[in-house]
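Objective 1.3, modelling of assemblies. Example input:
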Amino acid sequence: MRISELSTKSGVPVPTIKYYLREQLLPEGERSAPTQASYGEAHVKRLGVIRALVAAGVSIAGVRRVVETLDDPPTSAHLLLGSAHVAIAPPADDALDLVAAKDLARQLGWEPGTGEESVLYAVARALDGLKAAGFEVAPALMATYLTSMREIADAEIAGVPTSSPEAAVQYVVLGSALVEPLLLALRRVAQQVASAKRFGGDVL
Amino acid sequence: MRISELSTKSGVPVPTIKYYLREQLLPEGERSAPTQASYGEAHVKRLGVIRALVAAGVSIAGVRRVVETLDDPPTSAHLLLGSAHVAIAPPADDALDLVAAKDLARQLGWEPGTGEESVLYAVARALDGLKAAGFEVAPALMATYLTSMREIADAEIAGVPTSSPEAAVQYVVLGSALVEPLLLALRRVAQQVASAKRFGGDVL
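Predicted structure (tokens):
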């Protein structure tokens, strides 16, 4: 199909498609004439992935890393998950103190060598943000966070398809990045429900 | 204290402090001379909140809404939670289909009138992103998401302090926005642990 049809099918405007082509997030179409290229279903699917990642707040550099992982997946399922996490993670920051993060990670069953250290930086950065704002998470609440996240991760990893590297990386990368906004949105709905139950119309 | 000392104490550079003052995120200091102002502990604390929100990915417009809620909190604890969610939520989008989102919300105990509809838009937007990428969440996994988020929200709302509107809004706004990166980071650590357990060094 031509670029105009690709645009209609994917819902992505032609100038944006051209931008993705220039940024090499989308592979070139097959040349059908010197100034014309032909695109296929793989392009429609890839545009869906890019659009979803961008909508999920992943940067263009992050999208590029995800796309590279999709194009050239590692051979081990565990390495795959690691590279997917690195692809969508913010860069490591040596200024961060990892002590508290490592303590929480250990409570999740983490040991040195378990996986990518970059995920610990993300925990440390989050703890740093809470500390800077003077916000403390009570120990009982933190325990609930750890239990819930472990239950979620166990269910997710149990569902990783092993039929092909492509299927696994698709599941892992998209599952990590795209499920995040869903979890956060569900949490807010659940907070509204719990708040209505506890406070109703109560005046402070 | 003078602006240079405020900068040292808060770790925020002077030009950034001036930017926050111009954007009215930070209240003016007390004029001590025509070209000089004096700042207090409230400014240090407010800068911590702003810096944490910005680090958590909240936009300047979002920070302004949070700051306005902190300066003028609503009188009901439930309304407070609602306005906090609205402050940090992306704008509603009428193009989104709310049917699937409402179905999930109902499973969390949501009924019409429970709270701010804006949280449903966030669910719909997340589902839309997953759909655009061709990613399906298996029903059993979705059930785990719903259960975990309900447990988290119940524990969080049970801990909302009711001593003062300021304490409650601080807890709700910061707890919503700043705990998000912590939950997501803990999920990734737990995924690495579960992945190492399931796959070890297995080759696909």
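Residues 56-88+137-199 of chain A form one domain.
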